[in-house]
Amino acid sequence: MKIPVWPIGPLLPSALLNKSSSSAGYFYQHRAGKQPGISVEKCIKWLDLQKPDSVLYISFGSQNTISQAQMKALASGLEESGVLFIWVIRPPLGFDLRGEFKPEWLPEGFEERTREKKQGLLVKNWAPQLDILSHKSTGAFVSHCGWNSVTESLSQGVPIIGWPMAAEQAYNSKMLVEEMAVSVELTRGLQSEIRGEEVKEVIETVMGEKGKGAEMRKKATEVAERIKAAMNEEGDEKGSSIKALDDFISAVYVEAKRKEICS
């Protein structure tokens, strides 16, 4: 189209990029109107007890959920893998997302067993996502690949297990897998069939300390450094995003002056 383009971003809190938050709940406190399904302090305290890169975070965003069959398969594979997890869980497809969560939507006894084994936390509403992703114990993110979640995850060097559902999410997932090598795709859509064995295999691959999981974490860390560099502004050193914004403002100023002279 022969018009200039200025790439600016990512649009993330500076504290997230600089890791300057010094207290649990820093990011949550800036989320007005959100009702947490778990206290930020409890969440961070639990994460503090875990080893680095050992926790799998699962969330499909505030507007998405999965079918009951998919939910049971995900729970089954998660339990079989033995991996530690934080799962933001809502009623399955066909039910009120804001309604009460029923144990029957999960494998029988799943919640009790994982609680007794201290394997994970089920968060029934909203979780402090930025605090979780920025914690050193978080090793991977099962995500619907919405762009906000993608940038929040990659800014912390956290690789992704993709489950795109709608809108541009499939394109995001394709880029993450094929171009950036920071993700593997578990499945797509709300009607797909998955088995617990498949879930377990993917989780073990991504959370593994060697092989593909290690390579994905390395790639994700490299992307995180590029994201931070883009937003860097120290002295005369300016990142690509800062420079692009300066160029945009300069272009607007020049055009305004041109129109003023012409008129």
From TrEMBL:
Pfam family, one: UDPGT
CDD domains per the UniProt record, alphabetical: GT1_Gtf-like (cd03784)
Top-level taxon: Eukaryota
SUPFAM superfamilies on file: UDP-Glycosyltransferase/glycogen phosphorylase
Keyword annotations: Glycosyltransferase, Transferase
Keyword Transferase set for record: yes
Signal sequence interval, chain numbering: none
One Gene Ontology molecular-function label: UDP-glucosyltransferase activity
Family: Belongs to the UDP-glycosyltransferase family.
PANTHER family associated with the record: GLYCOSYLTRANSFERASE (PTHR48047), UDP-GLYCOSYLTRANSFERASE 92A1-LIKE (PTHR48047:SF107)
Protein name: UDP-glycosyltransferases domain-containing protein
Annotated organism of origin: Rubroshorea leprosula
